[in-house]
Amino acid sequence: MHAEIGVIGGSGFYSFLDDVEEIEVSTPYGPPSDPIAIGTLPSGHRGAGRPVAFLPRHGRDHRFPPHRIPYRANLWALRSLGVRQVVAPSAVGSLTAAYGPGTLCVPDQLIDRTSGRAQTYYDEGGAIHVSFADPYCPAGRRTAVEAATAAGWPPVDGGTLVVIEGPRFSTRAESQWYAGQGWTLVGMTGHPEAVLARELALCYIPACLVTDLDAGVEEGEGVTHEEVLQVFAENVDRLRGLVGDIVAALPAERDCPCPRTLDGLKPPFDLP
């Protein structure tokens, strides 16, 4: 089985595809979060029949907290099945009252505030430095923004996602500090996913659903797990439909810088 487009998602995406076949994939970094489901966009959809690989980021039983997700295995496994473009929906908090729950954001920048996560494939065999000034595929971002606008869900185009270690939420002081830097979103899974995709010369396309205002944005009890799950559940059908629209609109041939990431570099291993 082969799919050129992959989706890394969470709860609510398991009924995303038709004619699904699950594939166990082994990688040099251990097993991915779950077997990878390869299927097609459902009939009646604009991209009906297009093959897609789906991987539940946390595992289908949500057994991996954000800091324990096998990120390297996940991206490696997807590439080994032919994936070259990755759509990555996720739930995030907002660092500004202007982006309330239910807002869709397609950020263009990322800040890493994680610690202890394996975040490179190139930790031995020589120095390999990939460009990461713009962490997301520019063509993929444009496709996501256009698809959301066409679907009647105009997104916030741009902004900075700060990725924290988790699994705890931020303190008020941390949240206020992040906002004071001009950062707009906070999440727990966008890094190292994006950089690992870049190291494998994959396109990585974020689609962030705001589920809450972070602790420092306004007074109250702060973010709760229940609040996040409730808002995500209220919007998951819409988000799932949008991801399908993005997948349908992505080009078969990539015309972006991502495939040329490793030009002139010599990785210490063969890419899958």
What do these coordinates show?
The protein is α/β, with parallel strands linked by helices and 272 residues long. The chain contains 5 helices and 11 strands; from the N terminus they run ββββαβββαββαβαβα. Strands 1, 2, 3, 4, 5, 6, 7, 8, 9, 10 and 11 form an 11-stranded mixed sheet that branches. The longest helix is centred in the last third of the chain and has 25 residues, at 225-249. The relative contact order is 0.21.
| Helix-and-strand structural type | alpha/beta
How many strands in all? 11
Query: Helices and strands, in N-to-C order?
Result: EEEEHEEEHEEHEHEH
Helix content: 10-25%
Form type: globular
Rg result: 18 Å
Kindly, what is the distance between the CA atoms of the first and last residues, rounded to a whole number of angstroms? Answer: 15 Å
Poorly predicted runs are none
Oligomer: single chain
Approximate strand percentage: 15-25%
Mean pLDDT: 90
Tally of individual helices: 5
Largest sheet: 11 strands, mixed
